[in-house]
Amino acid sequence: MGAALAMDAMAVSVALGASGRKAFDWKKIILTAGTFGFFQFLMPLIGFIGSCFAEHLVYNYGSIVAGVLLILIGGKMFFEKADDESQAFSIPKLLVLALATSIDALVVGVSYRCMHRSDILWDLVIIGVVTMFISLMGCLAGRWSGKLLGNHCSYLGGGVLIMLGLKVIFFN
Fold this sequence. Notes:
The protein is mostly helical. Helix content is 83%, strand content 0%.
């Protein structure tokens, strides 16, 4: 479950690492991986606790909200100046991306409630740790590929986020 939920976060991590290849140092890599892991841990918990109140909203609109957020961030990355790497990473952008990539984990929390599970803490820890590790590897792969592809990575990263957003909206 952790690996499946981490795939969106991995794709975004690769895009971030590639678009900010020189400015994406270890501090930002660890912050990115930790943020994605934390959100993947937190969102199923929120879904589990809040499933009584917002189950229909998550099922009906969660994919649309996540997809629109990914498309907006991807569009911003795509149309930013290709040589301005310092804009590729910011805390607000990271938080929005972590939220957008973890909305599917919210649904997992709702499904735990539907299965009448109450012992979900270890599942959530595993999901968070797996996501953190996969995101770390994604950041490193993105940074490495960014060095190979040069200034075109912001276009590639933005395009990946836009396509991921469209996938989330139309095929989830």
